[in-house]
Amino acid sequence: MPPVTQRLRAAVVGAGAIATVGHLPALEAHADEVEPVAVVDVDTGRLDAFRARAGEGVAGYTDLALMLEREKPDLVLIGTPPSLHREQAVAALRAGAWVLCEKPLCLSLAEYDEIAAAEGTEEDGGPYSTVLFQHRYGSGAVHARELLASGALGAPLVAHCQTTWYRDAAYYSVPWRGRWATEGGGPAMGHGIHQTDLLLHLLGDWTEVRAMAGRLVHDVESEDVSTALVRFESGAMATVVNSVLSPQEASRIRIDCADATVELTHLYGHSNDDWVYTPAPHVADAPDGADRVRAWRTPAADLPSSHTAQLAAVLAARRAGVRPPGSGHEARRTLEFTAALYKSAFTGLPVRAGEIVPGDPYHTAMHGDHPDWAPGAPAKEATR
């Protein structure tokens, strides 16, 4: 791919809330590298509102195919309901555009593999698709990953990953929420997947999941709470909790390593001050302990986790013609983990990485056609 010498052309698909609070500010922050040229939405009122803020030069469309044909964008940012992601991502990739899509990228591993098949090759330099997991890209997360990868904190041993949020009945009055066919799952898929992805980003490949899920409050098809035990390739073990039933809301990751504990506590986004490092006694009492702890502190430059932070990484990869971070194996790994969590929760059996392949019902749907969880089945309080 030849080097890019002019601003990239970007199109936004879906002009709702996430487009105005996430995608558009990110594009504005990188205005020297990329310009919004089009927006697509079936609601003309949302189109007009988006264009009023983005500027008169942004063309409005109600048809994605027509926009791709006329505008030929370099980058497509997708912020529509999850059931539309696969079709829209594939269309954009086949039109030659790179894709940055809100989570979840798609509703199943089968859909993911279809998106991956539409990507370009390494030789062609793309196009590629990546999912918006912006928590990876804050400077605190980058620093923590470097410390863990280098062994500076000692071997990771025990971890906790928590997404305990609160959603009321009004939240689920939106027709596409709480339904497998349109949202893909409950808090494991639509809420906790951000923290899960960050946990996997920090600790690497997982090997086994044992999980439980329940419908304890909300009258929905999917779950409203889930828990999981996870074993990683490194030998580390973790707990994962996802809930939309928790009045005291928090998003947390804690990793206990041989030499230190690293903790992140936030809600919807983090900065450097949200990361805390606690040395083990044998480190704190050592002659060089103070120097080691000082090196763990998050960097002076503070880049909060955000769409803006992730877009910077995608633009750099696009200009270099290389696969963007958080795509390919890493994106599929997070989705596979989520499918494994559901399979384990609904079958009562442990699930190993690589187990869910074509022919497995959990490859084509997160509910796996389980009689107690598939659409149309009566809601039960909890699985075994």
From TrEMBL:
Pfam families: GFO_IDH_MocA (PF01408), GFO_IDH_MocA_C3 (PF22725)
Domain called Gfo/Idh/MocA-like oxidoreductase N-terminal: residue spans: 8-119
InterPro entries reported for this sequence: Gfo/Idh/MocA-like_OxRdtase_N, Gfo/Idh/MocA_Oxidoreductase, GFO_IDH_MocA-like_dom, NAD(P)-bd_dom_sf
Domain of life: Bacteria
Residue ranges of every copy of the GFO/IDH/MocA-like oxidoreductase domain listed in the record: 143-262
Stretches for region Disordered: 360-384
Name of protein: Gfo/Idh/MocA family protein
